[in-house]
Amino acid sequence: MALAKQFPKQPRQLIEDAATESKVEAAPENTQAILQHHEQRAQEPEVRPLPTIVSSAVTNLPANLSGDTLPKFSTVQECADQIKVLWSQAQHCFVNIGRHLLDAKERLPHGEYELMIENDLPFGKSVAHALSTIAKAVIAKKVEESLLPTDYTTSYHIVTLPDDELKLAKERDLISPKTTRKEILEFRKSLKQPDTKVAPADMKSLRKNKVKLKNQLTRLEEQKSQLEQDEARLRAELVDVEKKLLAAEEAQRQALAELA
Known about the structure:
This protein is mainly alpha-helical. The protein has three domains: 1-52; 73-195, no CATH class; 222-260. 67% of the residues lie in helices and 0% in strands. It has nine helices and no strands. It is elongated, with a radius of gyration of 42 Å. The termini are far apart.
């Protein structure tokens, strides 16, 4: 079944069709006006609803998909399938761009890489950094290329996650081609803001634990005070013993001197 939407006819073909339908040949003086009129009609797209159709297998994409080389689809599903293929290829495009950037940075003389980005590329240093970071992560097998979203900004947020957060994101099935930038940012935000909500049952347990800890702290403070008193008493006794020992040693030396 053919697509409901057809490409507009060429202006001269429209003139011929109009003349045939009315069975009146266009006068020479009116030809230019008719041509301009139908040129305007040809530029206006014809909008019709597309029917739902089950298609055959998807054909191979041509190397060049611009201009007249676009494939001619015969069903809606074929058109949708080709768009899906191109959409998935967008992911591989920015990863390969990142690979080229890494290669250029390694091979170009000092300063030439930055000049290339500034003068020859359609994006700036921040985009180049993001693309090369993604490619570096894929090369290091930090993230599988097939799991990256088709949006390079989302992929950049994924590959720059710390290893522990990336592991957690994988466990939560957040690393997939369908992952959005909003989902990754919310995930990172949730890790920085711990959940402070406490159930009523937990509040009762926390209050009980608070009283227990305060009692333990009071006892420790009392023990500390007693220990400080004991320390002062022992130090005083030590000083007294040292004085008595010095006096005994001095008396012994005098006794020995008298005997001599």
